[in-house]
Amino acid sequence: MTDIKTLNDNFRRTFSGGRVILSHGICFKPTNEKAEILNKVRCFNNFTTANNLYNEHDFESFNHKGEKIY
After folding, report:
1. pLDDT tens for residues 12-37?
2. CA distances from 24 to 1, 12, 27, 29, 52 (A)
3. How would you write the chain as a 3-class SS string?
4. Is the dihedral of CA 8, 12, 18, 21 positive or negative?
5. Cα–Cα distance for residue pair 21/34, rounded to 1 Å
6. Of 8, 34, 42, 68, which one's alpha carbon is 20 to 30 angstroms from that of 15?
7. In whole angstroms, what is the distance from residue 29 CA to residue 6 CA?
């Protein structure tokens, strides 16, 4: 059986095996900005004890052009 962390990592990197849902704030950004944000999501791997309390890799946040993205 695959653990949650591995499932989350695989989905984040490929967007396959689940559903990607964008907030209205992200949806209304220009296409190139959405692509940049989604690429940052795919490449994110900065999990720490502060943002990964249960070691499931299910939350991330990063800055994009001065805006905090969750």
Report:
1. 999 999 999 999 999 999 999 999 99
2. 35, 20, 5, 9, 25
3. CCCHHHHHHHHHHHCCCCCCCCCHHHHCCCHHHHHHHHHHHHHCCCCCCCCCCCCCCCCCCEEECCEEEC
4. positive
5. 12
6. 68
7. 30
Query: For 22, phi and psi rounded to 5 degrees?
Result: -105, 140
Tokens representing residue 69 in the block: 């993205």
Distance CA 57, CA 67 (A): 22
